[in-house]
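User: I'm curious what two different proteins look like when written out as structure tokens. Can you demonstrate?

Assistant: Sure. I'll show them one after the other, since each token string lines up with its own sequence. Here's the first protein:
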Amino acid sequence: MRCSEKQETVWREYEEKKKEVGQLLLQSNDEENPMDSLMFVDATQRVGVDHHFEEEIDMILRRQYNCSAKSVCFHGLHDVSLFFRLLRQQGYHVSADVFNNFKGKDGKFKDTLKQDIKGLMALYEAAQLSFKGEDIIDEADDFSRLHLSACLLGNMPEKSCSQEAIRKTLRHPQHKSIARLSSAKSILHGDLLKGSKVWEKSLRELVSMDSLIAKSLHQEELLQVSKWWKDLGLSEKLPNARNQAVKWYTWSMASIDDPRLSFQRIELTKPIAFIYLIDDIFDLYGTINELTLFTEAINRWDDTAIEMLPAYMRMSYKSLVDTTNEIAHNIHEKHGHNPINALKATWASLCDAFLVEARWFASGELPTAQEYLENGKVSTGAHVVLVHLFFLLGLGGFTNGGDDEINLNHTSKLMSSIATILRLWDDLGSSKDEQQDGQDGSYITCYMKDEPNVSEKQARQHVVDMILNEWRNLNQERFRLNHFSAASFKRCSLNIARMVPLMYTYDEKQRLPLLEEYMRNTLFD
């Protein structure tokens, strides 16, 4: 059999398997066993194939929501928690009051629940969808974490989940974790797809096929990105700057998980690469005077403004301008509107923020923690990525003028939350990226200067609490944006926030073990 014939056979079997799983999803959507359909939906999300079944999943969850308005469908801790999490993350209004039934007369969660490990794990997962001011969800988070952590210390009820499953739940709750952090092999043979459900065999087979096909697609996209970066010649011109095409592409790959959006993944990787490059120019190469001229040139978007710059800056500037203009042109060709002004504005804001930081550290004077954070949210580059993503997904064109049309202003709070999460996670990690020798700031350092009686441990805990609070803001913003037709943007944006721990959790050797594991599982395994 020729290669092309073999590929056609694989694709035909793959499409047939997707159709089979989709039909099984619809068949599970009945009143006799509503929990089975929710567990099926949960499984597709955990293994990262839910994007194939958006319509089927929405039909299931819409029916569950409508049924819940008439009567109480679920009673156990696990079932209520799963119902709450799946419907809230889909955008349905589910009150946190559903957990009041699990409290005793003293207003606390019942002591008997600590024996229900499966229920506690589901409760902890549900608690990650909290909004600000939902005290009962915060209590659920504390209660479930406390007793699950006790299980890891040996206080384990008989016939309960494995310690490894508990550890994964605590470290990587689904709502805040990227799909397929574990390898397809471990997913297929783990607790998740082990049981007697009629759909499990078909789902296992689909995951296996989907993983192989996605990996092949991502490898091809990575080759294109690597060739683009090499052809620019910037890594030779700036040898001390980071040259990490695989890492840059991984951001896009994880964020845009729909296999049909290959163009968007490749194009989004390009501004990500330039964010890292310009960061290194400010951190490792330029003098304050040169960086000021470079920033002015970016703000003017005018080639005549770069005549006084050193050669490496002129080359970087021209490459950035050419790439951005090309991306804007491609968006215009694909979606009918040209976002060049919005894209230029993000680069100007980024360089302005980089320059503010460069001047702070050159002067040796630390800003206040609040000043650092406000500027640091911009210097993460998150807004650059999210604005490019917004337009690459075809949004912002105002094609019909309807009330459900979304524009950049609607997304400002969501973008701010993601940028804050990124900034604070970065500062929780090492003060230096791998391969870097420049000086970076830290919110922790600035906070300890503002609060001289606070220890580093207390400062770090303060940052952890800020990240948790920002997730609550992000949850609420995603919920608020349900009015708009922007499901793909919300999904991709959330994936960026989910990727942050992988990108900034360093080990003692200044390596990124979670990121390395994820890249092995999705690209190279």
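Here's a second, unrelated protein for contrast:
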Amino acid sequence: EYDEVMDEQRKRVYGYRQRILDGVNCRLLIVDSVHDQVEHHLNTFLDRDSGVESFARWAGSKLSAQLTPKDFRGMDFEQADRYAKDEAERMAETQVIEAIDENLPGEEEESEWNWEALAKMANVRWGLSLRDRDLKKIGRDEVAEHLIAEASKAIHAIDLSEGAVFLEEDFGIRSVGAWAHSKFGFALELDELRGREAGELKKLVRQRAEAEYDNKEAEYPVMAGMYRYTQASQGSTHLDRDGLVAWARERFETELSVEDLKHKQREEVRELLVEHSRKHLDKANEKSATVKRKIDSLFRSAAGDETLAEVTGSDSELESLVDWIHDTLKLELSKREAARFDRETCERRLTGAVEDQFRPEIRRMERMLLLQIVDTAWKDHLLAMDHLRSSIGLAGYAQMDPKVEYKREGMRLFEQMWTSIAERVTDLIFRMESLNEDFVGSTWVETSARHEQAPAASDIAQQQRAAIDASQGNADAVIETIRHRGERVGRNEPCPCGSG
């Protein structure tokens, strides 16, 4: 039963990882992560208690008190300020009595009392400047009243006005705007957010985030190219404009000359190239739409498992399709290979060809980034699950079934792992300018390089059989008998490794 939990988790992680290795469009996976993040965070910000929970946490940390969020519902700031300080004052009385009982126990000798710890507790908790010798002069019987009075003065002197923003009516939507700007880099005006239902707000943020992702797709190849053509010499760097222009001209299929970059600063050069990149991506979108229409027309009335051989209906139609794929996408496919494609495989291979032609750098970056983050998170999760399994037996002392608790806590940790993956991936994707320069450089693609498809499993098998046949072709070759030439160890003799 313990292994059942891990088996389910392994299937999900390895299945996700295999999809990446099989060539799925990683943008789709990252967009899913964006949607998950929007759903998770906006549910938090738009919750009715979001403001009072934030105020209770913040004020509680300032007042060294544990405040209950629901107590502040419907209060304005003046009411909340007064109530929070009254609660903190009441809690201070309890905290003082407990500290005295702990550090000045009545059943112990006075020589064992820890006046220093008592003074330190009060100083740390309420920001006082008490000395242990002064408290000792007051004596145990009177020190409680003295500490409570000092704590009360300190509590009422604390300014909570900065927390007023948490209790404002539009705190939730302000939080949405601030989070979206911090997370994705785009600004949302309050007027855009006010008056919208939660579902509408989520849709708006998702759309703006995807639009920002489109901007990143245009910017990333330019960033990779400028890293590639930046040269260091004598402690300074300069841009190889000739090389950059030659690359950009072929990469973005545009007319560009060194004169276009003349007298331009680095940022101006970047903006010019990004504009060419955007226009090139417009062509990519047109080609993607063409591919989608082609696939839809082929599989319009087909069942999910039908292949291209079945939907085309004849060898001539299939051959015509293979020629169209080559002419349109520059993708080399044999008729035999294409015949086996079902709809899912066809979509993956053809859209992948479009991506490799128009967005090679960012697709490579996404793939590397996802694999690295998933692998790291999975290793950390396995370690956490090992710790959980070694300690779950203690649940029996609390009258709980260890197996049930292991399953519940294990799945909680697993979902937490996926949340952390989505958080990390989106953080890096929308701040790609902070990525390591060497990492970005590793995703740079030569414009003259040609995308080669990995050989199919059947092709590999044929190559292996050919190699075997070739190795067996020379029948006259004498194969030397394999002999053991080292020193032999007797059956009952000690092992030479020293183990006995």
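A detail about the second structure: Residues 449-482 have pLDDT under 50 and may be disordered.
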